[in-house]
Design a protein that fits this description.
Blueprint (H helix, E strand, L loop, with lengths): L9 E6 L1 H5 L9 H14 L3 E6 L4 H13 L4 E7 L2 H11 L5 E8 L2 H8 L3 H18 L3 E6 L6 H14 L3 E6 L6 H14 L7 E6 L6 H10 L4 E4 L13 H10 L1 H4 L2 E2 L6 H12 L20 H9 L21 E2 L4 H10 L6 H17 L2 E2 L1 H12 L6 E11 L2 E11 L4 E8 L2 H13 L4 E9 L8 E9 L2 E9 L2 H19 L11
Parallel strand pairs: 1-2, 1-8, 1-9, 2-3, 3-4, 4-5, 5-6, 6-7, 7-8
Antiparallel strand pairs: 10-11, 12-13, 13-14, 15-16, 16-17
Helix pairs in contact: 2-3, 2-12, 3-4, 4-6, 6-7, 7-8, 8-9, 15-16, 17-18
The structure holds 3-methyl-2-oxobutanoic acid and zinc ion.
Length: 519
Amino acid sequence: MRDPDVSCRRVIVFDTTLRDGEQAPGCSMNLPEKLAVAGQLERLGVDVIEAGFAAASPGDAAAIKAVAKAVRAPAVASLARALEKDIDAAWEAVREAQRPRIHTFIATSPIHMEYKLKMGPDAVVERAASAVRYARSLCPDVEFSAEDASRSDPDFLCRVFSAAVEAGATTLNVPDTVGYAVPGEFAELVRRLRAGIRGVERAVLSVHCHNDLGLAVANSLAAIEAGAEQVECTVNGIGERAGNAALEELAMALRTRGNRLGACCGIDTTQIYPASRLVAASTGSKVQANKAIVGENAFAHEAGIHQHGILANRETYEIMTPESVGLPRNRMVLGKHSGRHAFDERVAELGLALGPEDAARIFEQFKELADKKKTVSDRDIEALVRGSARRLPESFRLERFVINSGSSITATSAVCLALRDGTREERVAVGDGPIDASFKAIDKIVGKRLVLEDFSLESVTGGKDAQGEAHVRIALDGRRYNGRGLSTDIVEASVRAYLAAINSMEAEAGGGDGTGRAS
Ligand code: KIV
Ligand code: ZN
Protein backbone atom coordinates (compact mmCIF):
# COMPACT_ATOMS: atom_id res chain seq x y z
CA MET A 1 0.00 0.00 0.00
CA ARG A 2 1.25 3.45 -0.75
CA ASP A 3 -0.32 6.88 -0.55
CA PRO A 4 -1.33 8.02 -4.01
CA ASP A 5 1.33 10.18 -5.65
CA VAL A 6 1.46 13.69 -4.36
CA SER A 7 2.97 16.71 -6.00
CA CYS A 8 6.04 15.97 -4.05
CA ARG A 9 7.93 18.42 -1.83
CA ARG A 10 11.25 16.62 -1.80
CA VAL A 11 12.90 16.54 1.60
CA ILE A 12 16.71 16.43 1.66
CA VAL A 13 18.05 13.32 3.40
CA PHE A 14 21.23 14.02 5.37
CA ASP A 15 22.75 10.80 6.62
CA THR A 16 25.03 10.92 9.66
CA THR A 17 25.63 7.17 10.15
CA LEU A 18 29.36 7.75 9.69
CA ARG A 19 29.47 10.63 12.21
CA ASP A 20 26.74 10.65 14.87
CA GLY A 21 26.17 6.91 14.32
CA GLU A 22 29.81 5.97 14.46
CA GLN A 23 30.24 8.11 17.59
CA ALA A 24 27.97 5.74 19.56
CA PRO A 25 29.61 3.32 21.99
CA GLY A 26 30.76 0.17 20.22
CA CYS A 27 29.83 1.44 16.73
CA SER A 28 33.25 2.46 15.47
CA MET A 29 34.18 1.38 11.95
CA ASN A 30 37.51 1.08 10.24
CA LEU A 31 38.33 2.70 6.90
CA PRO A 32 37.27 -0.15 4.58
CA GLU A 33 34.00 -0.43 6.50
CA LYS A 34 33.35 3.32 6.28
CA LEU A 35 33.98 3.25 2.54
CA ALA A 36 31.64 0.29 2.08
CA VAL A 37 28.91 2.07 4.07
CA ALA A 38 29.45 5.31 2.11
CA GLY A 39 29.05 3.35 -1.16
CA GLN A 40 25.79 1.85 0.06
CA LEU A 41 24.55 5.28 1.20
CA GLU A 42 25.16 6.52 -2.32
CA ARG A 43 23.18 3.56 -3.72
CA LEU A 44 20.40 4.41 -1.26
CA GLY A 45 20.27 7.88 -2.76
CA VAL A 46 20.96 10.01 0.31
CA ASP A 47 21.57 13.66 -0.53
CA VAL A 48 24.28 14.34 2.04
CA ILE A 49 26.75 12.03 3.79
CA GLU A 50 28.21 13.39 7.00
CA ALA A 51 31.41 11.36 6.93
CA GLY A 52 32.87 12.28 10.31
CA PHE A 53 34.31 14.94 12.57
CA ALA A 54 37.68 15.78 11.03
CA ALA A 55 39.19 17.49 14.07
CA ALA A 56 38.43 14.48 16.29
CA SER A 57 41.46 12.47 15.13
CA PRO A 58 43.78 12.02 12.14
CA GLY A 59 42.01 8.70 11.47
CA ASP A 60 38.63 10.46 11.24
CA ALA A 61 40.06 13.12 8.92
CA ALA A 62 41.61 10.47 6.65
CA ALA A 63 38.33 8.54 6.48
CA ILE A 64 36.35 11.68 5.54
CA LYS A 65 38.90 12.46 2.84
CA ALA A 66 38.61 8.94 1.45
CA VAL A 67 34.79 9.11 1.42
CA ALA A 68 34.94 12.56 -0.21
CA LYS A 69 37.00 11.12 -3.05
CA ALA A 70 34.95 7.93 -3.37
CA VAL A 71 31.38 9.18 -3.67
CA ARG A 72 29.99 11.13 -6.64
CA ALA A 73 26.39 12.18 -6.17
CA PRO A 74 25.90 13.01 -2.48
CA ALA A 75 27.40 16.07 -0.82
CA VAL A 76 30.06 15.09 1.74
CA ALA A 77 30.12 16.94 5.05
CA SER A 78 32.46 17.10 8.02
CA LEU A 79 31.38 18.34 11.41
CA ALA A 80 33.39 21.16 13.04
CA ARG A 81 33.01 23.07 16.28
CA ALA A 82 32.73 26.84 15.78
CA LEU A 83 36.50 27.15 15.87
CA GLU A 84 38.84 28.06 13.01
CA LYS A 85 41.09 25.06 13.63
CA ASP A 86 38.13 22.65 13.44
CA ILE A 87 36.82 24.38 10.31
CA ASP A 88 40.25 24.17 8.68
CA ALA A 89 40.40 20.44 9.45
CA ALA A 90 36.88 19.95 8.08
CA TRP A 91 37.66 21.82 4.87
CA GLU A 92 40.90 19.91 4.35
CA ALA A 93 38.94 16.65 4.70
CA VAL A 94 36.05 17.48 2.34
CA ARG A 95 37.64 19.82 -0.21
CA GLU A 96 38.10 17.08 -2.82
CA ALA A 97 34.44 16.04 -2.74
CA GLN A 98 32.26 16.78 -5.75
CA ARG A 99 30.00 18.70 -3.37
CA PRO A 100 31.83 19.58 -0.15
CA ARG A 101 29.98 20.84 2.92
CA ILE A 102 31.26 22.20 6.23
CA HIS A 103 28.91 21.65 9.15
CA THR A 104 29.71 23.90 12.08
CA PHE A 105 27.87 24.08 15.39
CA ILE A 106 27.68 25.76 18.76
CA ALA A 107 25.32 25.17 21.68
CA THR A 108 22.54 27.68 22.30
CA SER A 109 20.63 26.39 25.36
CA PRO A 110 21.10 28.22 28.69
CA ILE A 111 22.51 25.10 30.38
CA HIS A 112 25.06 24.43 27.63
CA MET A 113 26.10 28.08 27.33
CA GLU A 114 26.58 28.49 31.08
CA TYR A 115 28.16 25.16 32.07
CA LYS A 116 29.79 23.83 28.93
CA LEU A 117 30.80 26.86 26.89
CA LYS A 118 30.99 29.35 29.78
CA MET A 119 29.90 31.99 27.29
CA GLY A 120 27.13 34.56 27.37
CA PRO A 121 24.45 34.73 24.64
CA ASP A 122 26.07 37.70 22.83
CA ALA A 123 29.39 35.90 22.58
CA VAL A 124 27.64 32.78 21.26
CA VAL A 125 25.91 34.78 18.50
CA GLU A 126 29.22 36.41 17.60
CA ARG A 127 31.08 33.06 17.57
CA ALA A 128 28.38 31.40 15.44
CA ALA A 129 28.47 34.22 12.90
CA SER A 130 32.25 34.36 12.69
CA ALA A 131 32.51 30.54 12.35
CA VAL A 132 29.98 30.54 9.50
CA ARG A 133 31.70 33.51 7.83
CA TYR A 134 35.04 31.75 8.03
CA ALA A 135 33.60 28.45 6.74
CA ARG A 136 31.94 30.32 3.84
CA SER A 137 35.29 31.86 2.91
CA LEU A 138 36.42 28.27 2.21
CA CYS A 139 33.33 26.39 1.07
CA PRO A 140 30.13 27.44 -0.72
CA ASP A 141 27.97 24.98 1.25
CA VAL A 142 27.88 25.65 5.01
CA GLU A 143 25.50 24.15 7.52
CA PHE A 144 25.09 25.72 10.93
CA SER A 145 23.61 23.81 13.89
CA ALA A 146 22.38 25.29 17.16
CA GLU A 147 23.18 22.42 19.50
CA ASP A 148 20.43 21.65 22.05
CA ALA A 149 18.06 23.87 20.06
CA SER A 150 14.96 22.23 21.52
CA ARG A 151 15.95 23.43 25.02
CA SER A 152 16.96 26.89 23.81
CA ASP A 153 14.92 30.08 24.01
CA PRO A 154 13.11 30.31 20.62
CA ASP A 155 13.69 34.08 20.40
CA PHE A 156 17.40 33.56 21.01
CA LEU A 157 17.41 30.79 18.38
CA CYS A 158 15.89 33.22 15.86
CA ARG A 159 18.68 35.67 16.70
CA VAL A 160 21.49 33.11 16.30
CA PHE A 161 20.07 31.62 13.10
CA SER A 162 19.47 35.11 11.62
CA ALA A 163 23.13 35.94 12.29
CA ALA A 164 24.19 32.63 10.72
CA VAL A 165 22.19 33.31 7.52
CA GLU A 166 23.59 36.81 7.39
CA ALA A 167 27.09 35.31 7.65
CA GLY A 168 26.35 32.97 4.74
CA ALA A 169 24.94 29.71 6.16
CA THR A 170 23.14 27.72 3.47
CA THR A 171 21.49 25.22 5.86
CA LEU A 172 20.19 25.92 9.36
CA ASN A 173 19.89 22.81 11.50
CA VAL A 174 17.65 22.49 14.57
CA PRO A 175 18.90 19.60 16.71
CA ASP A 176 16.87 17.96 19.44
CA THR A 177 20.23 16.98 20.89
CA VAL A 178 18.99 15.20 24.00
CA GLY A 179 15.74 13.83 22.54
CA TYR A 180 13.65 16.05 24.82
CA ALA A 181 11.06 17.41 22.40
CA VAL A 182 7.59 16.01 21.75
CA PRO A 183 6.10 16.17 18.25
CA GLY A 184 3.54 19.00 18.56
CA GLU A 185 6.01 21.19 20.40
CA PHE A 186 8.83 20.49 17.92
CA ALA A 187 6.57 21.29 14.96
CA GLU A 188 5.63 24.55 16.67
CA LEU A 189 9.31 25.40 17.10
CA VAL A 190 9.94 24.80 13.39
CA ARG A 191 7.00 27.06 12.44
CA ARG A 192 8.21 29.73 14.85
CA LEU A 193 11.71 29.61 13.38
CA ARG A 194 10.39 29.79 9.83
CA ALA A 195 8.49 32.91 10.80
CA GLY A 196 11.20 34.50 12.96
CA ILE A 197 14.57 33.96 11.25
CA ARG A 198 15.60 36.90 9.08
CA GLY A 199 16.53 35.61 5.61
CA VAL A 200 15.24 32.07 6.30
CA GLU A 201 14.21 31.80 2.65
CA ARG A 202 17.89 31.91 1.67
CA ALA A 203 18.68 28.73 3.65
CA VAL A 204 17.40 25.16 3.99
CA LEU A 205 15.76 24.50 7.36
CA SER A 206 16.85 21.15 8.78
CA VAL A 207 16.09 18.99 11.83
CA HIS A 208 18.25 16.47 13.69
CA CYS A 209 16.41 14.37 16.27
CA HIS A 210 17.68 12.02 18.94
CA ASN A 211 15.67 9.13 20.28
CA ASP A 212 15.94 9.38 24.06
CA LEU A 213 12.15 9.27 24.45
CA GLY A 214 11.67 7.06 21.39
CA LEU A 215 10.33 10.08 19.46
CA ALA A 216 13.11 10.86 16.99
CA VAL A 217 11.19 9.77 13.90
CA ALA A 218 7.86 11.21 15.16
CA ASN A 219 9.54 14.55 15.87
CA SER A 220 11.25 14.56 12.46
CA LEU A 221 7.95 13.85 10.67
CA ALA A 222 6.16 16.54 12.68
CA ALA A 223 8.92 18.96 11.69
CA ILE A 224 8.55 17.98 8.02
CA GLU A 225 4.81 18.67 8.20
CA ALA A 226 5.67 22.04 9.72
CA GLY A 227 7.96 22.88 6.82
CA ALA A 228 11.41 21.40 7.60
CA GLU A 229 13.25 20.83 4.34
CA GLN A 230 16.07 18.52 5.47
CA VAL A 231 16.07 15.58 7.91
CA GLU A 232 19.16 14.17 9.54
CA CYS A 233 19.19 10.47 10.28
CA THR A 234 21.18 7.25 10.50
CA VAL A 235 20.76 3.75 9.16
CA ASN A 236 19.19 1.49 11.84
CA GLY A 237 18.85 4.65 13.98
CA ILE A 238 22.32 4.18 15.48
CA GLY A 239 23.83 7.14 17.29
CA GLU A 240 24.64 8.73 20.64
CA ARG A 241 22.74 7.12 23.58
CA ALA A 242 19.34 5.93 22.25
CA GLY A 243 20.37 6.91 18.72
CA ASN A 244 19.15 9.20 15.96
CA ALA A 245 16.06 9.19 13.76
CA ALA A 246 16.18 5.99 11.69
CA LEU A 247 16.64 6.62 7.98
CA GLU A 248 14.62 3.55 6.98
CA GLU A 249 11.64 4.59 9.11
CA LEU A 250 11.64 8.14 7.74
CA ALA A 251 11.99 6.94 4.15
CA MET A 252 9.20 4.37 4.46
CA ALA A 253 6.92 6.82 6.29
CA LEU A 254 7.46 9.31 3.46
CA ARG A 255 6.80 6.59 0.88
CA THR A 256 3.77 5.07 2.60
CA ARG A 257 2.22 8.26 4.03
CA GLY A 258 3.67 10.90 1.74
CA ASN A 259 0.25 12.26 0.90
CA ARG A 260 -0.61 12.93 4.50
CA LEU A 261 2.84 14.35 5.24
CA GLY A 262 2.91 16.42 2.07
CA ALA A 263 6.46 15.37 1.26
CA CYS A 264 8.66 12.68 -0.26
CA CYS A 265 12.37 11.93 -0.54
CA GLY A 266 14.83 10.55 -3.06
CA ILE A 267 15.68 7.31 -1.22
CA ASP A 268 15.65 4.11 -3.28
CA THR A 269 13.83 2.10 -0.63
CA THR A 270 14.84 -1.23 -2.19
CA GLN A 271 18.36 -0.48 -0.94
CA ILE A 272 17.19 -0.20 2.68
CA TYR A 273 17.60 -3.82 3.73
CA PRO A 274 21.10 -4.18 2.26
CA ALA A 275 22.09 -0.89 3.95
CA SER A 276 20.71 -2.06 7.29
CA ARG A 277 22.56 -5.38 7.14
CA LEU A 278 25.79 -3.70 6.10
CA VAL A 279 25.67 -1.16 8.93
CA ALA A 280 24.78 -3.85 11.48
CA ALA A 281 27.68 -5.96 10.23
CA SER A 282 30.18 -3.11 10.11
CA THR A 283 29.38 -1.68 13.53
CA GLY A 284 28.53 -4.92 15.32
CA SER A 285 25.41 -3.11 16.55
CA LYS A 286 22.60 -5.60 16.15
CA VAL A 287 19.12 -4.75 14.95
CA GLN A 288 16.40 -5.71 17.42
CA ALA A 289 13.98 -8.33 16.06
CA ASN A 290 10.93 -6.07 16.32
CA LYS A 291 12.64 -2.99 14.87
CA ALA A 292 10.35 -1.26 12.36
CA ILE A 293 11.16 -1.87 8.67
CA VAL A 294 14.43 -3.83 9.08
CA GLY A 295 13.93 -6.08 12.14
CA GLU A 296 13.81 -9.85 11.72
CA ASN A 297 10.08 -9.82 12.56
CA ALA A 298 9.10 -6.66 10.68
CA PHE A 299 7.32 -8.70 7.99
CA ALA A 300 6.67 -11.92 9.93
CA HIS A 301 3.06 -12.85 10.67
CA GLU A 302 2.69 -15.33 13.51
CA ALA A 303 -0.92 -15.20 14.73
CA GLY A 304 -3.22 -17.58 12.87
CA ILE A 305 -5.84 -14.91 12.30
CA HIS A 306 -3.22 -12.65 10.71
CA GLN A 307 -1.86 -15.45 8.54
CA HIS A 308 -5.39 -16.15 7.34
CA GLY A 309 -5.90 -12.50 6.46
CA ILE A 310 -2.55 -12.27 4.71
CA LEU A 311 -3.33 -15.33 2.59
CA ALA A 312 -6.67 -13.82 1.54
CA ASN A 313 -5.21 -10.39 0.80
CA ARG A 314 -1.78 -9.20 1.94
CA GLU A 315 -3.02 -5.66 2.55
CA THR A 316 -5.16 -6.86 5.46
CA TYR A 317 -2.08 -6.77 7.68
CA GLU A 318 0.71 -5.39 5.50
CA ILE A 319 1.02 -1.66 4.82
CA MET A 320 4.20 -2.08 2.80
CA THR A 321 5.74 -5.03 1.02
CA PRO A 322 9.02 -6.70 2.00
CA GLU A 323 10.17 -6.18 -1.60
CA SER A 324 9.76 -2.41 -1.25
CA VAL A 325 12.51 -2.37 1.39
CA GLY A 326 14.73 -4.76 -0.53
CA LEU A 327 13.74 -7.96 1.21
CA PRO A 328 12.90 -10.58 -1.41
CA ARG A 329 9.83 -12.59 -0.44
CA ASN A 330 10.77 -16.03 -1.69
CA ARG A 331 14.37 -16.68 -1.01
CA MET A 332 16.02 -19.80 -2.38
CA VAL A 333 17.69 -21.90 0.28
CA LEU A 334 21.43 -22.01 -0.30
CA GLY A 335 23.36 -25.21 0.36
CA LYS A 336 26.13 -27.35 -1.03
CA HIS A 337 24.48 -27.64 -4.45
CA SER A 338 24.20 -23.90 -4.90
CA GLY A 339 26.37 -22.41 -7.59
CA ARG A 340 28.36 -19.24 -7.86
CA HIS A 341 25.56 -17.33 -9.57
CA ALA A 342 23.05 -17.92 -6.76
CA PHE A 343 25.73 -17.06 -4.20
CA ASP A 344 26.68 -13.80 -5.96
CA GLU A 345 23.05 -12.80 -6.22
CA ARG A 346 22.43 -13.37 -2.53
CA VAL A 347 25.57 -11.44 -1.57
CA ALA A 348 24.35 -8.49 -3.67
CA GLU A 349 20.86 -8.66 -2.10
CA LEU A 350 22.47 -8.49 1.31
CA GLY A 351 24.29 -5.30 0.31
CA LEU A 352 27.66 -6.93 0.71
CA ALA A 353 29.42 -5.57 -2.35
CA LEU A 354 32.50 -7.72 -3.03
CA GLY A 355 35.36 -7.39 -5.46
CA PRO A 356 35.96 -10.39 -7.79
CA GLU A 357 38.86 -11.74 -5.70
CA ASP A 358 36.98 -11.55 -2.41
CA ALA A 359 33.90 -13.07 -4.05
CA ALA A 360 35.90 -16.07 -5.28
CA ARG A 361 37.57 -16.59 -1.89
CA ILE A 362 34.36 -16.25 0.09
CA PHE A 363 32.56 -18.58 -2.31
CA GLU A 364 35.19 -21.23 -1.44
CA GLN A 365 34.54 -20.64 2.28
CA PHE A 366 30.81 -20.86 1.59
CA LYS A 367 31.30 -24.26 -0.10
CA GLU A 368 33.36 -25.53 2.86
CA LEU A 369 30.65 -24.40 5.26
CA ALA A 370 27.91 -25.90 3.10
CA ASP A 371 29.70 -29.23 3.36
CA LYS A 372 29.46 -29.04 7.14
CA LYS A 373 25.93 -27.60 7.37
CA LYS A 374 22.78 -28.63 5.53
CA THR A 375 21.77 -25.10 4.67
CA VAL A 376 23.74 -21.89 4.78
CA SER A 377 21.67 -18.98 6.06
CA ASP A 378 21.91 -15.30 5.18
CA ARG A 379 23.44 -14.72 8.62
CA ASP A 380 26.17 -17.28 7.83
CA ILE A 381 26.95 -15.53 4.55
CA GLU A 382 27.04 -12.13 6.21
CA ALA A 383 29.38 -13.49 8.85
CA LEU A 384 31.71 -14.95 6.20
CA VAL A 385 31.79 -11.68 4.28
CA ARG A 386 32.28 -9.66 7.47
CA GLY A 387 35.20 -11.78 8.53
CA SER A 388 36.83 -11.18 5.19
CA ALA A 389 35.75 -7.67 4.20
CA ARG A 390 37.05 -6.07 7.36
CA ARG A 391 40.47 -7.45 6.64
CA LEU A 392 43.15 -4.80 7.06
CA PRO A 393 46.86 -5.33 6.55
CA GLU A 394 47.69 -7.91 9.20
CA SER A 395 50.48 -7.02 11.61
CA PHE A 396 49.77 -10.24 13.50
CA ARG A 397 48.39 -13.36 11.86
CA LEU A 398 47.31 -16.48 13.68
CA GLU A 399 49.52 -19.45 12.82
CA ARG A 400 48.22 -21.89 15.45
CA PHE A 401 47.17 -22.19 19.02
CA VAL A 402 46.94 -25.10 21.46
CA ILE A 403 44.89 -24.95 24.62
CA ASN A 404 44.78 -27.17 27.65
CA SER A 405 41.66 -26.66 29.66
CA GLY A 406 39.23 -28.55 31.85
CA SER A 407 37.14 -28.43 35.00
CA SER A 408 39.99 -29.24 37.38
CA ILE A 409 43.07 -27.64 35.77
CA THR A 410 44.25 -24.08 35.17
CA ALA A 411 43.72 -23.23 31.52
CA THR A 412 46.86 -22.68 29.48
CA SER A 413 47.22 -21.54 25.92
CA ALA A 414 50.19 -21.52 23.56
CA VAL A 415 49.67 -19.09 20.68
CA CYS A 416 51.94 -18.75 17.68
CA LEU A 417 51.62 -15.61 15.53
CA ALA A 418 53.26 -14.68 12.24
CA LEU A 419 54.58 -11.11 12.29
CA ARG A 420 54.75 -8.72 9.38
CA ASP A 421 58.54 -8.93 9.11
CA GLY A 422 58.19 -12.64 8.29
CA THR A 423 59.21 -13.92 11.74
CA ARG A 424 57.11 -16.02 14.10
CA GLU A 425 56.65 -15.76 17.81
CA GLU A 426 55.09 -18.21 20.23
CA ARG A 427 54.12 -17.51 23.85
CA VAL A 428 52.37 -19.46 26.56
CA ALA A 429 50.08 -18.03 29.23
CA VAL A 430 47.70 -19.27 31.90
CA GLY A 431 44.34 -17.67 32.42
CA ASP A 432 40.84 -17.83 33.71
CA GLY A 433 39.66 -20.23 31.00
CA PRO A 434 41.08 -20.91 27.53
CA ILE A 435 40.02 -17.60 25.98
CA ASP A 436 41.58 -15.50 28.74
CA ALA A 437 44.76 -17.58 28.55
CA SER A 438 44.92 -17.11 24.75
CA PHE A 439 44.42 -13.32 25.00
CA LYS A 440 47.19 -13.14 27.61
CA ALA A 441 49.56 -15.13 25.37
CA ILE A 442 48.80 -12.70 22.52
CA ASP A 443 49.39 -9.70 24.83
CA LYS A 444 52.88 -11.04 25.56
CA ILE A 445 53.68 -11.07 21.83
CA VAL A 446 52.11 -7.69 21.04
CA GLY A 447 53.80 -6.06 24.04
CA LYS A 448 51.19 -3.38 24.68
CA ARG A 449 48.95 -2.79 27.69
CA LEU A 450 45.63 -3.36 25.98
CA VAL A 451 42.38 -2.96 27.89
CA LEU A 452 39.70 -5.47 26.94
CA GLU A 453 36.54 -3.34 27.14
CA ASP A 454 34.03 -5.69 25.64
CA PHE A 455 33.86 -9.30 24.61
CA SER A 456 30.87 -11.21 23.34
CA LEU A 457 30.35 -14.51 21.67
CA GLU A 458 27.28 -15.78 19.96
CA SER A 459 26.23 -18.38 17.51
CA VAL A 460 25.47 -17.07 14.03
CA THR A 461 22.54 -19.45 13.60
CA GLY A 462 20.95 -22.19 15.69
CA GLY A 463 22.05 -25.82 15.72
CA LYS A 464 25.05 -27.83 16.93
CA ASP A 465 26.94 -27.08 13.73
CA ALA A 466 26.52 -23.30 14.13
CA GLN A 467 29.44 -20.98 13.62
CA GLY A 468 30.49 -18.91 16.63
CA GLU A 469 31.07 -15.22 16.10
CA ALA A 470 33.15 -13.30 18.62
CA HIS A 471 33.24 -9.55 19.01
CA VAL A 472 36.02 -7.82 20.89
CA ARG A 473 36.57 -4.17 21.78
CA ILE A 474 39.98 -3.14 23.07
CA ALA A 475 41.26 0.26 24.14
CA LEU A 476 44.71 1.80 24.15
CA ASP A 477 45.42 5.39 25.18
CA GLY A 478 41.74 6.34 24.98
CA ARG A 479 41.23 4.98 21.43
CA ARG A 480 38.94 2.02 20.85
CA TYR A 481 39.23 -0.74 18.28
CA ASN A 482 36.75 -3.44 17.34
CA GLY A 483 37.42 -6.86 15.94
CA ARG A 484 35.30 -9.78 14.94
CA GLY A 485 36.21 -13.42 14.43
CA LEU A 486 34.36 -16.39 13.05
CA SER A 487 34.86 -20.11 13.44
CA THR A 488 32.99 -23.26 14.35
CA ASP A 489 35.52 -23.37 17.25
CA ILE A 490 34.68 -20.66 19.79
CA VAL A 491 38.21 -20.23 21.13
CA GLU A 492 39.49 -19.73 17.60
CA ALA A 493 36.68 -17.24 16.87
CA SER A 494 37.71 -15.30 20.00
CA VAL A 495 41.41 -15.34 19.15
CA ARG A 496 40.66 -14.14 15.62
CA ALA A 497 38.45 -11.33 16.94
CA TYR A 498 41.16 -10.20 19.37
CA LEU A 499 43.75 -10.19 16.59
CA ALA A 500 41.40 -8.30 14.26
CA ALA A 501 41.03 -5.55 16.87
CA ILE A 502 44.80 -5.43 17.36
CA ASN A 503 45.37 -5.27 13.60
CA SER A 504 42.88 -2.41 13.35
CA MET A 505 44.86 -0.57 16.04
CA GLU A 506 48.13 -1.28 14.25
CA ALA A 507 46.71 -0.11 10.92
CA GLU A 508 45.71 3.22 12.48
CA ALA A 509 49.16 3.61 14.02
CA GLY A 510 50.78 2.90 10.65
CA GLY A 511 52.05 -0.55 11.61
CA GLY A 512 54.53 0.35 14.38
CA ASP A 513 58.16 -0.53 13.71
CA GLY A 514 57.41 -2.93 10.89
CA THR A 515 57.62 -6.08 12.97
CA GLY A 516 54.08 -5.63 14.22
CA ARG A 517 55.40 -5.43 17.83
CA ALA A 518 55.47 -2.44 20.13
CA SER A 519 58.76 -0.63 19.79
O1 KIV B 1 22.83 16.14 18.37
C1 KIV B 1 23.40 17.17 18.01
O2 KIV B 1 23.16 18.27 18.51
C2 KIV B 1 24.41 17.05 16.99
C3 KIV B 1 24.87 18.33 16.38
C4 KIV B 1 26.34 18.48 16.43
C5 KIV B 1 24.29 18.48 15.00
O3 KIV B 1 24.78 15.96 16.60
ZN1 ZN C 1 23.32 14.39 17.17
